[in-house]
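Possible regression after last week's pipeline update?

I re-ran a chain I had predicted before the update to compare outputs. Posting the input and the new output here so someone can diff against the archived version. Not blocking, just want to make sure nothing changed silently.
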Amino acid sequence: MDNIGHVRTYKVTIVDLSTNNETEMVVQSGEDMSTGKFVIRCTLNDQEIVSEHDEYFTAFQQFRDKLLEAGYGIKCNGARLNAASLSKFENGPKVYILESGSPAFPESSVDIWAKADIEDYPDSVRQNRYKNKWYDNHIGVSKNTELSKLCLAGFIFSLMPLALIILCIAFPFFLYALPAVIIISPLIAIVLSIAGLVTAIREGKRGMAFGVAGIALPVIAVAIIAITVGPFLFESSRTAKRLAQNEMYPLGYMGGASNTQYDVSKYKIPEGYDFNSLNMTVSDADLEAYCESTLEKIDNKTDKSIRGVYQTYNFLIVRSDKLNAWLESNSPNGFDYYNGYASISYPRQGREWMIVSETLAVYKDPSDKFIVITNCSDYKIISEFFD
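New output (post-update):
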């Protein structure tokens, strides 16, 4: 055994499971001086069987499982169903023989390789299940086996959707994170929990309850979210689409006034101004001609209005003879008035899915043929637009 130190040789009895014929075999065990791992090997039917692991008993279990796969059982204490290693600090060729309802005292440890008169040849999964059952049924025993970190991690990720539900109730802003958390964290939780359960069963680790909870909780959380938050998200989506149909929606919102030394009062609409009394008729051609002469870019046209851009600001030009019909579709409450002059508001979906009102400036062309709605608050640009 190259680079293997502390080599020991054992003569053991193996059984051909197909014929029940017994024969003796030589097994060697030692420690790999480069990795520190325990190595167990033998030659069976001209084939070398090798296992290695940081823990001696785990290396033995892997070795025994390979013998079982080859069709052979091994008659030794380590192969007993109730054989177990209870502490990684007792890392050598010793095992405890567990008895239900009895504690495992140091004197109950035996040599792994000593011959045992057994007829049942369990694999590692069955041994680890027995050890876990012994742990669960034996009160007052110190559980020294390692906690499955994968099961614990899966359990932690499984709590995220439930925690987010609470946060969403207290702080609706967290609804923005809901789609990602609903999709990502349950998947991570389930994958980690399944992997943790598999390794916990195979290696006899604690924490399988965390793994089970890590699978169940995401399913429960997603169901709760779907029932409680799903209708709200659906309705919010419908509301957002409806609000976006308002012709003022693409205009955005208006900032604070600038260049106020420019007088734009002659373009403002005074309170009580009645466009219907003008009996004015505006054609589609008039509207298009006016917009082409004032706007730098045209984005959208309807039979009542044209939207475009002037000096990076959004402008919406509405025909005065169809103002009432346009208001009915886009602002049923009509104009708002502040300091005697008109402005207009439209609803949009703001933060935390709240409906907020945005105010835009309203002007009229000196010809009274066109109403100009804009998010521009720069009086210099307004003056240049009409000039």
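Follow-up from reviewer: compared with the archived run. The first helix runs from residue 56 to 69. Marking as no regression found.
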